[in-house]
Amino acid sequence: MHCVNAVPAFTECCVILALLIFPHGIEGRLQFTSPYNGRTVRSLAGSSVNFTWGFSGNVGDIQWGLKESGINDFKTNGILVKLQGNNKVLLSGPPEYNGRVSGSRSSDQAVFTLSSITKVDERFYGCILEPARGSFDSSRFDIVHLVVEGG
Hints:
The protein is mainly beta. The chain has a single domain, classed as Immunoglobulins (Immunoglobulin-like). The chain is 13% helix and 44% strand. The protein has a 6-stranded mixed beta sheet, with no helix packed on it. Strands 1-3-8-7 form a 4-stranded antiparallel beta sheet, with no helix packed on it. The longest helix is centred in the first third of the chain and has 20 residues, at 2-21.
């Protein structure tokens, strides 16, 4: 008779274990809801361009910057804007971007702006979503290619 009663107890243990491992459920996973997936964005020299990423899940910090060639990561000193989970904005990166980059976030979207665009800005940019503290999720990386016309 112990074997018959062991099946429900085992099932209950599996459900409890699954809730501990996936407290937000599978649908709570960190993801881009509107990724660029390497698409090209065109903008005129001298203008500004907004890069907008939608996201869902338990997002901590969001970073935007200069993509390293061949890998899903940023160039050394290539992070331009870091949006922290507490809505603090940190600006960094190469000096040629000083005063030309900004960023903001809401609960499900991040917007990064590059102003006074020149031909030198034509490159691949990346955005990384970092999981919030305590999350067991992995970071996500997306890429956009800026092409500058004119100038």
